[in-house]
Write a structure and sequence with these properties.
An eight-stranded mixed β-barrel has the order 6-7-9-10-11-12-13-14, surrounded by five helices. A five-stranded mixed sheet has the order 2-3-1-4-5, sandwiched between helices. It is α/β, with parallel strands linked by helices. Helix 15 packs across helix 16 and helix 18 packs antiparallel against helix 19. The protein folds into two domains: 187 residues, Reverse transcriptase/Diguanylate cyclase domain (Alpha-Beta Plaits), CATH 3.30.70; 262 residues, Alpha-Beta Barrel (TIM Barrel), CATH 3.20.20.450. It is elongated, with a radius of gyration of 26 Å. 39% of the residues are buried. The two termini are 36 Å apart. Helix content is 46%, strand content 18%.
Length: 470
């Protein structure tokens, strides 16, 4: 706990914020907020303070994520009054175990986090192991009710500049391993946990989002750099957790290694994306397209071709309005001849094939010669580097020139400022996307902005509307 948190945490049932708590002026971005039930920092404040703690720490840190086993089931059986009492008791026990310079928060309904100095590791492990017995002492009937267990995932690092996101993701993976191993145990993150549970965890996250209607598609505009007009949109998958946190594709990308999970996700984005596109295309220039990301499983399966063809027919959309984006690694399938045939079949009905993140995989320029490719997308990292290196600028310019000579279009992605935009335009790039033009938006917001943007009288006004924060 922070020193300014200590005096408050001695009174678990007091939901007010004392004078010793930091004010808005001290935190710049948020007002520190205490969870009324537990008396601990709430999720937003915990992560805000955790970033500050990591930033000023001169020694390695550890993050522990704790989950109260079967609490949701107990709430269903015995009511939330019992569950609230259980959480309050656990919070008091947790506070008694740690030193004042540690940070504690309630980050979910039944999840808690502790950020502490790694030097406390051994003593804290013993204390954390005792939590279950202490909880059972507080609630003598806990075992009978199926309660009393605490699953814990921990990640420790020797790298003092570790990002909070990295710490949290790995501790969360370790927590999943603890739950999958029978619960009420402590698991540390390691290579074995990463290999076995990270993918499994992400697949479960996707499945739960699908079952609870928390999958959504966001749309980011693709702009014609010559006249500033919208030339289409890219459909991007987003997942919203029960806690309200929104996950980007990088947080569940490993789940796409599972064939069934990848195919279901692609089908969802395809149908939801095309449905929204029927409105988004209104008022756009001729030749505008909707871009959808697909996986190596999709392009290696003939069934997926017919799924796409049927979706287009059902929504009365031409193949000339769709672009499928694949990664360089996706086209390295051992059965490459079959993949080429499937891609050629897509192109035969007017669908464009784009290589996403061109230059980050293994195929490089080879794919431009061998594969049925219509578009390459130069990734953000590549664009970020060219602003400081003349050599990189020349390489980038030659790639664009080569693509053009082969009849392949280029989309510059990751354009975040005018300097990068000017470099892309100098290289002869026609299409671009990035935060400079507009962030990915949920379909309802994207439609609202789109209608307003299409009604704009000029390209400048269009871009201003696209960048609007809603």
């Amino acid at each position: 706990m922070y020193q300014d948190q200590k005096s408050y945490l001695s009174e678990v049932n007091d939901a007010s914020i004392p004078e010793s708590q930091p004010t808005f002026a001290h935190t710049a971005q948020i007002v520190p907020t205490v969870d009324a039930l537990s008396g601990l920092w709430n999720r937003e404040t915990f992560f805000h303070k955790a970033k500050e703690m990591i930033g000023r720490s001169r020694s390695p840190l550890s993050l522990a994520i704790l989950d109260l086993d079967k609490l949701k089931r107990a709430n269903d059986l015995y009511g939330h009054t019992f569950g609230d009492s259980y959480i309050k008791s656990f919070s008091r026990l947790l506070q008694a175990l740690v030193s004042p310079d540690c940070l504690i928060g309630r980050i979910g309904g039944d999840e808690f986090s502790i950020l502490y100095k790694d030097s406390y590791g051994k003593s804290y492990l013993g204390a954390l192991r005792s939590l279950s017995e202490r909880l059972k002492n507080e609630f003598p009937n806990a075992s009978t009710l199926g309660l009393g267990g605490v699953s814990i995932g921990i990640h420790s690092t020797s790298n003092t500049d570790t990002e909070l996101e990295d710490l949290y993701e790995k501790a969360d993976t370790a927590l999943y391993a603890a739950k999958d191993s029978g619960r009420n145990i402590i698991k540390r993150y390691n290579e074995f946990v990463e290999q076995r549970y990270s993918i499994k965890h992400q697949i479960e996250t996707v499945n739960e989002a699908e079952q609870n209607d928390r999958l959504e598609v966001a749309f980011q505009p693709i702009i014609n750099l010559e006249d500033g007009k919208c030339a289409g949109y890219e459909a991007l998958t987003r997942i919203t957790l029960e806690s309200g946190k929104r996950l980007l594709p990088t947080s569940f990308s490993k789940a796409l290694r599972d064939r069934q999970c990848a195919l279901r996700l692609s089908n969802y984005v395809l149908n939801d994306g095309i449905s929204a596109w029927k409105i988004l295309r209104e008022g756009l220039m001729k030749g505008s397209r909707l871009s959808i990301n697909v996986t190596e499983h999709d392009i290696a399966d003939w069934k997926f071709f017919y799924v796409v063809a049927n979706a287009l027919e059902n929504h009365h959309i031409s193949g000339r309005e769709l672009r499928l984006e694949i990664s360089e690694t996706a086209i390295l399938d051992p059965n490459c001849e079959k993949v080429i045939q499937i891609l050629q079949k897509f192109r035969s009905i007017g669908i464009e094939i784009a290589i996403d993140g061109f230059g980050t995989g293994f195929s490089g320029l080879t794919c431009l010669r061998k594969w049925p490719v219509d578009v390459i997308k130069i990734d953000y990292g590549f664009l970020a580097d060219v602003s400081s290196s003349n050599r990189e600028k020349q390489i980038n310019r030659h790639i664009c020139s080569l693509a053009c000579s082969l009849g392949i279009s280029v989309i510059a992605q990751g354009i975040e400022d005018e300097a990068t935009l000017n470099i892309a335009k100098t290289d002869g790039v026609i299409l671009g996307q990035g935060f400079y033009f507009g962030r990915p938006r949920h379909s309802s917001v994207a439609l609202l902005l789109h209608r307003s943007a299409v009604a704009s009288r000029s390209a400048r006004e269009f871009l201003t509307t696209c960048r609007a924060r809603v």
